[in-house]
Amino acid sequence: MIAVALAPDIQAMQLVQSGIRLGTRVSEIDQGGSMDRSVLLPSGRLSIGKVFDFEAGHRLPGLPPGHKCSQQHGHSYQVEVILTAQALSGPGFVTDFGDLSPFKKFLDAELDHHNLHELLPFEPTSERLAQYLAGWFIQNIEPNIPGQLVTVRVRETQRSWARFDVEQR
User: Does residue 67 have an active-site annotation?
Assistant: First the structure.
């Protein structure tokens, strides 16, 4: 058993839910002797992230005709959402990863295997796509989960990405 001593500012509700009382400090005893593994948990925010993917084509007509991205091309997009919470809910989650499945359903139904420049009301750069997906997530997912979206990262390739950081609300 590994036990922890909790910082005073962690909410009492969390302590009761997890079965840990404020100030608890227990040591783990091993067969060969004693090892003190008690830890004082610092206060702060906890974060989780989940990566989703979809395939889509696009072009950026606002670029000069000779630019390679002005031509139709496609990407295997990866979209990472990062959520945070001051306190954990349930058994100790920022948000249950399963509660993010409506976001994957949206990506699959609305963006996967489509031409983004034909669907979206803006030139579908990774930057604008990250901001758009953050807005959709905040409006459609966030009201139903305990965590709060802080970042959306959109990758077009393994080496290039754009990130949108949501302003603190």
Answer: no
Which entry of 69, 114, 123, 127 is annotated as an active-site residue?
A: 69
The model carries a pTM of 0.79
Provide, for the chain, the percentages of residues in helix, strand and coil under a 3-state DSSP scheme, each rounded to the nearest 5: 30, 30, 40
**Looking at the predicted structure, is the pLDDT value of residue 36 above 90?**
no
Please say if 113 is a catalytic residue.
yes
Rg, the chain, Cα only: 22
The phi-psi region of residue 113 (left if phi > 0; otherwise alpha if psi is between -120 and 50; otherwise beta) is: left
- DSSP-assigned letter for residue 114: S
Residue 147's Cα: distance from chain center in Å? Answer: 9
H or E element, residue 138: helix 126-140
CA distance 51 to 38: 33
Per-residue pLDDT at 7: 45
Q: Is 35 exposed, middle or buried (0-12, 13-18, 19+ CB in 10 A)?
A: exposed
Per-residue pLDDT averaged across 17-46, rounded? 62
Nearest to 138 by CA among 96, 94, 102: 102
127 is catalytic: no
Q: What is the pLDDT of residues 119-154, one digit of tens each?
A: 999 999 999 999 999 999 999 999 999 999 999 999
From 55, 73, 110, 113, the catalytic residue: 113
